[in-house]
Amino acid sequence: MSDHPQSFWSKYIFSFDHKVIGIQYIVTGFVMAGIGALLSILIRLQIAWPGQPIEFLGKLFPEGMPGGYMMPEFYIALVTMHGTIMVFFFISYVLVSGFGNFLIPLQIGARDMAFPLLNMLSYWVGLVSALVMLGAFFVEGGAAASGWTAYPPLSALESAVPGSGMGQTLWLLSMALFIVSFTMGGLNYVATIFSMRAPGMSMMRMPLTVWSYFVAAILGLLAFPALTAGAVMLLFDRHLGTSFFLPAGLVVGGELVQAGGGSPLLWQHLFWFLGHPEVYVLLLPALGIAFDVLPAFTRKPVFGYRLSVYALIATGALGMIVWGHHMFVSGMSPFSGEYFSIATMLITIPMAIIGVNFLASLWGGRVIFKTPMLFALGVVAFFGTGGLGGLFLGNATADIQLHETYFVVGHFHFMIGGVTLMGTFTAIYFWFPKMFGRYMSEGLGRAHFWFTVAPFYTLFLGQHFLGLQGLTRRYYAWDSYQYVADALPTNVLLSVAAFVLVSGQVLFLGNFVWSIFRGRVAERNPWQATTLEWTTASPAPHGNFGEHIPVVHRWPYEYGIDAGGEDFADQSVAPDRAPVTA
Amino acid sequence: MQAAVTATVTGSALGVGSELRNFQLRLGMWVFLGTVTMLFAAFSSAFMVRSAGTDWHAMPLPRILWWNTGLIMLSSVVLDYGRRCANQSRWGSAAAAVGGAGLLGLLFLLGQLDAWRQLAQAGISVPTGPFAASFYMMTGLHALHLMAALALLGWGAWRLWRGALDDEVAVRGVASLCATFWHFLGGLWLYLFAMMLLL
Ligand code: HEM
Ligand SMILES: [Cu+2]
Known about the structure:
The complex is a heterodimer of chains A (582) and B (199).
Chain A: H1 8-13, H2 18-48, H3 55-60, H4 72-108, H5 116-135, H6 166-195, H7 208-223, H8 225-239, E1 251-252, E2 255-256, H9 264-298, H10 305-319, H11 334-362, H12 371-394, H13 396-402, H14 406-436, H15 442-468, H16 488-518, E3 559-563, E4 566-568
Antiparallel strand pairs in A: 1-2, 3-4
Chain B: H1 2-7, H2 17-51, H3 64-87, H4 91-121, H5 130-161, H6 168-198
The complex binds protoporphyrin IX containing FE and copper (II) ion.
C-alpha cells in the first residue's frame, strides 16, 4: 500500500489519505481561529474602552474605524464574523472534520474512509467556503452584520446596513458550501463506521470518540439541510424580490419596504433547527475524546461505557427537538414555550449522565497530570460550568429575563467555545505523537493550559454576572445605558483576561511548530493507551496498518489489569495474553 | 456482555470486494437521500407557514404537470425493469431500459421547463407572490436533483452496456443505486405536486 511513488502534490495537497485530509482541516481551522481571535480583540477593545479612539487601528480600518473610532456597523460585523468563523470554521474544522478524519479509520481499524475521493472534495469545498467567508471582509459594505444567526430583516434587505449587501450574500453562499462540504464528510463518517470496522470491532466495542463522531455526523446530516433551505429562500428574498421572511408594513430607515406577508420567525425556526443540533455536533466529539483520554491517565476503565453510548445517542435525538429554546421571547405561544422548556430539561438528563460518568471515571484513579490530561479535565470542568448556566436558560421564565444578555454569551462560550476548545487541545496534545511521530513539549503545554483556563474562567464566568446585571449583548455603545454604567471596571478586567487568553495561545503555536521539527521522538504507544491507532507506527503510515488489519478481541478500555508486567491491553491483544474484562 | 458484543455485525461480516462496495454505496445513497428529505421537509414547512399568510394566493397549475407526472412514473417502471434485467444478466436490455428511463426523465425536465414557460407567459414570475416563488423554487431544486440523477443514469447505462465485461456484482450494484435515487425523486415529485395542488 505504502510503496507506490507519489508526487508532492498527490501526497500532501490533493491527497486521498484520511490522515493528510484531517491534518489539512486542522491547519485550516487553526488559521481561521487566529483570524477569529483577532476579531475578538477588536470587540473587547471597544467594550472595555467604548468611544475611545485607537489611532493605529484607524489606519488599518479606515472605513470601519475612521480616526480610530469604532463604527457601529463595523462592530456588529465583527461580532457576526467572529461567531461564524469560530463555530463553523474553527471548531467544526479542527474538532469535527480534522480529528474525525484522522481518528475514525485509525480507531476502527480501517485503511481509509469508505469514499476517499469524496473526502478530498469535502476538504476542498470546505476551503473554498472558508475563503468565500473571509472574502466578505474585502467587498463593498464589508462583511455580513446580522449576527452569526443571520436574522432577517437585517440579512434580507440589502439596504438595511452596509454589511447587508454583498457581505451577506457571500455569507449565505459560504454557508451553503459549508453544508455541502459537511454532507460529503458526514456521509463518509457514517458509511465508514458502518462498513469498515476491523474484524471483532462490534459497534459496542468502538471507542467513545468514534461513537461521538457517529452521532455527530448523523445529527449534522439531518439538521443542516434546514439552513440550506433557509439560505435559498433568503437569497430569493434578497435578489429575486420574494418575501419569504419579510413581513408586511416593514419600515427601514423611514421608508416602507415593498414586501408583504413574510415571516422573520420562519427564518429563526429554520436557523435554530440547524443551530441547536450544530452545537451538539461540536460538543459531542469533545466529550468522546475526553472519555478516551481520561482512562489513559487514570489507568482505569471509563465508568459506564454502555450508558455513555446511550446518553450520546439520546442527546443527539433530543438535540433535534429543542431548537425553540432560542426563541422564547419571539412571541411563541406559551404552550410551545412550555414544550421547548420541557424538552430542553429532558436533554439535561443524558448530559448529566455523561457528566457523572466523567466524574466516576476519575474517582479513585491515580491521576497522571500530563498535558492531554489537564485539558481533558478542562473538558469536564467547562462542561459542568456551562451546563449549569444552561439550566437557567432552559427555563422559559428565567430566559425571558436573561435572553440577549451576557449571561447567554457566557453560557455558550463555556459550551460551544470552552468544552470544544479544551477538547481540541486535548486531542492535539494526545494524538500529536501519532500525527508527527514526536511529543509536544510538556512544560510549554502546561503553561499553555494555565494561560488558557485561568483567563477563560475569568472572562466567561464574569460575563454570567454582567448578564444577571442586565448587560445586553451586541450593543457597541453599551455604556450609554445608565443602569449598567458600573459594569465598566468589570468589562476592563474581562478585556484584559481576553487579551491574556489570546496571547497565551502563542505558547501553543510555538510549541506546535517547534515540536513538529524538534520534539522528542515518540514511540508507537507513548501514553500506553488501548485503542487501535496505538498499535501502528508513529506517525501512522499510509494505509495505517502494515500488512494485516488488526483483529479486535476486547473493548477499548482494558486498563488496570495484570497483563505480564503491564497494566493495560490494547484492543488487538488476544484473550490468552491478557484477561478480557468487557 | 461478551457474547452480545461479538454477535453484532463487524466489518468483515459484510463480505469483501464488490459486495462490500455495493453495501457502502447503498448506505451512502440512503444517508444522502435522508439529507435530501430533510431539505425538502424544510421547504415544505416554509410552504405551509407561508400558506397561512394574508398574501397567499394559490394559483391553478399548468395542465402539463399531469403529463410530466405520468412521464416520471413511467420512467420509474422502465428503470425497474432494467434493474431486474441486470439481475438476470441480460445486459443489453438492462442498458436500454436504464437509458430509456433517462430519456423519459429528460422529457420530464423539458415538460417542467414548459410549465415554467406557460406561467411566465401568463405573467406569473418569482416575485408575483409566495405561491409562485415556492413553485419555481421547489420545482427548480427538484430539477437540479433530477439532473444529478440523470448523470448517474447515464453512467449506469454505460456500465450495464459493458456489463458482461465488468464485475457483474458491481454492475448490479450500480443498477440498484440508479433505481433507488430515481424512485426517490419520482416519489418526491408526487409529494411536491400533491402539496402544491392541495394547499
Ligand atoms: C445543559 C444543556 C443546555 C441547556 C439547557 C441550554 C440552554 C440554552 C438556552 C435556553 C439558550 C438560549 C438562550 C437565549 O438566547 O436566551 C442557549 C443558548 C446557547 N447555547 Fe445552550 N444549552 C445547553 C447546552 C449547550 C451546549 C452543550 C452548547 C454547545 C456546545 C450550547 C450552545 C449554546 C449557544 C451557542 C447558544 C447561543 C446562541 C446565540 O444566541 O447566539 N448550549 N442554551
Ligand atoms: Cu440550543
